[in-house]
Specification:
- The complex is a heterodimer of chains A (119) and B (108).
- Helices cover 7% and strands 48% of the residues of chain A.
- Chain A has 2 helices and 10 strands.
- In chain A, strands 2-10-9-4-5-6 form a 6-stranded mixed beta sheet. A 4-stranded antiparallel beta sheet of chain A has the order 1-3-8-7, with no helix packed on it.
- In chain A, strand 7 and strand 8 form a beta hairpin.
- Chain A is globular, with a radius of gyration of 13 Å.
- In chain B, the strands form 2 sheets. In chain B, strands 2, 4, 5, 6, 9, 10 and 11 form a 7-stranded mixed beta sheet that branches. Chain B has a 4-stranded antiparallel beta sheet with strand order 1-3-8-7, with no helix packed on it.
- Chain B has no helices and 11 strands.
- Chain B has 108 residues and is mainly beta.
- Chain B is globular and about 40 Å long.
- The chains are: A mainly beta (119), B mainly beta (108).
- Chains A and B meet through strand 5 of A and strand 5, strand 9 and strand 10 of B.
Chain lengths: 119, 108
């Protein structure tokens, strides 16, 4: 059974950075691509990027290039998403989700972490 | 980037009725990469359909996905109270994953 447990809610000022974590169970870490998807209040879903089992990353070039960094800690099976230069439009719930290699869909999701950007 | 447009934005139906949700793409979509999700308030999305027509584990058989090319459909044959939610389609075009804007299925 795959489980993804995310860190809690965060509040940041505009211009600051935030780190959201996603702890994976079992062999999730070495089997799945881990994606990040966000959802602004009352809005739809937006793909941010992924980190694969080899630690290689790919991000949504049009929206987040240069502002999002995804890393992992193999010793704790935790994936991190750092978003910098925050603006009010980054206020959203951030989800991590799994994709089995070359399956193109997100099978398991974390519970989400609310990030609020406000002055 | 492939843009997915879902219609209608809101669908008002009664339990027991049939629901038909549409997802139209700006370019041809690899059928293997078309998925549907259900989201209820305060919850993470839940995978319903992958590969355009394959039900995910636990998806009731009243949910059917179909379509190819640029036109895809999610059909719910007989609505149950727990089916009233927001539904999203999603695709991957080799460089980015994109989602439709969602269809809200509400109780009439």
């Amino acid at each position: 059974q795959v489980q993804l447990v995310q860190s809690g809610a965060e509040v940041r000022r505009p211009g600051a950075s935030v780190r959201v974590s996603c702890k994976a169970s079992g062999d999730t870490f070495t089997t799945y691509n881990i994606h990040w998807v966000r959802q602004a209040p009352g809005q739809g879903l937006e793909w941010m990027g992924l980190i694969n089992p080899r630690g290689e990353t790919k991000s949504n070039p049009q929206k987040f290039q240069g502002r999002v960094t995804m890393t992992r800690d193999t010793s704790t099976s935790t994936i991190y998403m750092d978003l910098s230069s925050l603006r009010s439009e980054d206020t959203a719930v951030y989800y991590c989700a799994t994709e089995l290699h070359l399956k193109y869909y997100f099978e398991y999701w974390g519970q989400g972490a609310l990030v609020t950007v406000s002055s | 980037e492939i843009v997915l447009t879902q219609s209608p934005g809101t669908l008002s139906l009664s339990p027991g009725e049939r629901a038909t949700l549409s997802c139209r793409a700006s370019q041809n979509v690899n059928i293997r990469s078309l998925a549907w999700y259900q989201q209820t308030p305060g919850q993470a999305p839940r995978l319903l359909i992958y590969g355009a027509s394959s039900r995910a584990t636990g998806t009731p058989d009243r949910f059917t996905g179909s379509g190819s090319g640029t036109d895809f459909t999610l059909t719910v044959s007989r609505l149950e109270p727990e089916d009233f939610a927001v539904y999203y389609c999603q695709q991957y075009d080799g460089s980015a994953h994109t989602f439709g804007q969602g269809t809200k299925l509400e109780i009439k």
